[in-house]
User: Which sequence fits this backbone?
């Protein structure tokens, strides 16, 4: 059995109330696309699973720069947009 940290337990209970698919591209959709490629719902889940406070982002664009997958391999992303128009509808937007 894993030891449970009380502070981390409170954060781990955040669950989305609803979900819908993105209709058009935006900065938020771009970052969600990157989290979902790496196997997470969004930034909230990533921070819960990886127990990190900050996600590394490109200062110029604010897009996610690097994510660690659950199997501990890393995904590295470009400064530019990576989520193409044809991929936008696959991105899930979670509402808390």
Assistant:
């Amino acid at each position: 059995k894993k030891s449970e940290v009380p502070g981390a337990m409170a954060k781990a209970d955040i669950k989305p109330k609803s979900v819908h698919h993105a209709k058009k591209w935006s900065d938020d959709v771009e970052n969600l696309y990157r989290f979902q490629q790496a196997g997470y719902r969004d930034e909230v889940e990533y921070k819960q699973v990886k127990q990190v406070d900050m996600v590394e982002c490109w200062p110029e664009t604010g897009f996610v720069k690097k994510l660690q997958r659950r199997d501990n391999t890393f995904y590295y992303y470009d400064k530019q947009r990576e989520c193409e128009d044809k991929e936008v509808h696959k991105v899930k937007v979670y509402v808390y």
